[in-house]
Design goal:
The protein has about 450 residues and is an alpha/beta fold. The chain has helices at about 1-25, 35-60, 65-70, 75-105, 130, 135-155, 160-170, 170-185, 195-215, 295-300, 335-350, 365-380, 395-400, 415-430; strands at about 225-235, 240-245, 260, 270-275, 285-290, 305-315, 325-330, 355-360, 380-385, 410-415, 435-440. It contains 14 helices and 11 strands. The strands form 2 sheets. It has a 6-stranded antiparallel β-sheet, with helices on one face. Strands 9-8-7-10-11 form a 5-stranded parallel β-sheet, with helices on both faces.
């Protein structure tokens, strides 16, 4: 359901822009000869690229009012990625249409009709649209090259997150250059057509979002500061519990939500799930698995009393579904939102039957004992799948333990490949897509 919603949103934005552009064309605009048609398509691909990129830039500023309709911040970061790739595709088509005739002529591939002559304006003072036209075209081309490089780095998973974060900060600047490029070069008749008001609104909102990003004001109204109050390392699975005592106001959070955490070090903020329930006491607990260079070094680099800035909460992994019966599946550090929910239920009580499956390759007896104790306290059935003993959680093994699994809501948090495989198998066997809830904890 969540992927269908994201794909539908992407299609709605793209088709909506295409429809408005089509409605803004003069009759017969695509049948007036090679050069006129090519010019029309150059404008069209440019409009599509900039419109899609504008929506992506707006989402990157983390407007929380989009979380509910899109299913959470993790979901619209996925949409942000798809919008970026779609915008890049249209931008490359725009570039090829612009440069293609020259290449074809130089290579002698086939004959192109001669370009019709056009009357030249007689300069009469400074005209921003005339005198900056060449500059806008050139700077737009270089911005496209930089855009290609930035998208390639974002897609390259081996590129370290800390460098990705720094290079991706150039994206708002690239966007602003492209807004200038479009403002100078776009067919000015578009502004009075159906496309005009919508495109103007997107460019204005995108420009504001880009400036917010450039001046590092994203999420500033949702930030709270504090210090590290507790540190505990689980040696068996290399999981670090970081307790934070907040010293400024926090709006509270629900189990399953996460926050961006900056530990006052050389790295930028990273997203971590909050593993504690909110008791209005100023305390937050983050359970962090050492998976990369940064998270693996936290245990040795953090110290009690160290400053922390927390931004959030975000996410809609809220355990609210259509069925009273639930299955929870946590893979590795994906168990974190379920720990938070267990702690919340231990305080509030539980009424519906729940089965928790925890699949882990790094078994830590004390860590698992805490989960098991919380499960017993809340009456939740706990199933440990020990990967170190070659156990694997599959739909077949889950169905053997719970024959009525098709009548449940499934909540999954863990490695994306594991989640995608489980979701696909369950839906293929009859689980309604809307009943599989998956956290897409991937911000690039």
């Amino acid at each position: 359901m969540q992927f269908t919603r994201l794909k539908s949103t992407l299609a709605l934005v793209a088709l909506g822009l295409a429809a408005l552009w089509t409605l803004s064309l003069e009759p017969g605009a695509l049948s007036q000869g090679f050069w006129a048609t090519r010019t029309t398509l150059v404008y069209g691909t440019g409009v599509m690229a900039l419109g899609l990129m504008s929506v992506g830039i707006i989402l990157a500023a983390r407007p929380v009012w989009f979380e509910t309709p899109l299913g959470g911040l993790d979901k619209f970061y996925r949409l942000h990625k798809w919008l970026g790739l779609s915008a890049l595709g249209f931008a490359l088509a725009h570039w090829v249409l612009r440069k293609g005739p020259s290449w074809i002529t130089e290579l002698g591939l086939f004959a192109i009709p001669p370009k019709p002559p056009h009357a030249k304006d007689v300069p009469t003072g400074f005209d921003v649209f005339r005198d900056l036209r060449d500059f806008a075209a050139e700077i737009g081309e270089w911005a496209l090259y930089l855009l290609v490089a930035l998208v390639a780095l974002a897609l390259w998973k081996r590129f370290p997150y800390k460098y990705f974060f720094k290079t991706h900060r150039l994206m708002p600047m690239v966007y602003l250059v492209l807004v200038f490029h479009a403002f100078i070069l776009i067919d000015r008749s578009y502004w009075t057509k159906p496309l005009g008001p919508v495109l103007a609104l997107l460019l204005a909102a995108g420009t504001v979002a880009a400036l917010i990003a450039l001046f590092r004001k994203i999420g500033i109204s949702r930030q709270a500061s504090g210090t590290i109050a507790t540190l505990r390392i689980h040696e068996g699975n290399q999981v670090l519990d970081v307790g934070v005592r907040l010293e400024t106001a926090w709006r509270g959070h629900d189990a399953g939500q996460y926050a961006f955490v900056n530990f006052d070090d050389v790295e930028d903020a990273h997203p971590f799930t909050i593993s504690s329930a909110w008791h209005n006491d100023g305390m937050l607990l983050f359970t962090i698995k050492g998976l990369g260079d940064y998270t693996s070094s936290l245990a040795s680099n953090l110290h009690l009393g160290q400053g922390v800035v927390v931004e959030g909460p975000y996410g809609r992994f809220n355990f609210q579904g259509d069925s009273d019966r639930q299955i929870w599946i946590g893979g590795g550090v994906g168990i974190t939102p379920f720990i938070a929910r267990l702690r919340e239920l231990a305080r509030e009580g539980r009424t519906n039957p729940i089965d928790l499956f925890y699949a882990t390759n790094a078994k830590d007896t004390a860590f698992i004992a805490t989960i098991r104790q919380l499960a017993q306290q809340t009456g939740i059935s706990f199933h440990l799948v020990d990967g170190s003993q070659d156990e694997r959680l599959t739909l077949e093994s889950l169905a053997a333990a719970l024959p009525d699994w098709k009548q449940t809501d499934v909540w999954f948090c863990g490695p994306s490949g594991f989640g995608d495989a489980m979701r696909g198998a369950m839906i293929a066997k009859g689980l309604p897509a809307a009943r599989f809830h998956q956290e897409l904890f991937d911000m690039r």
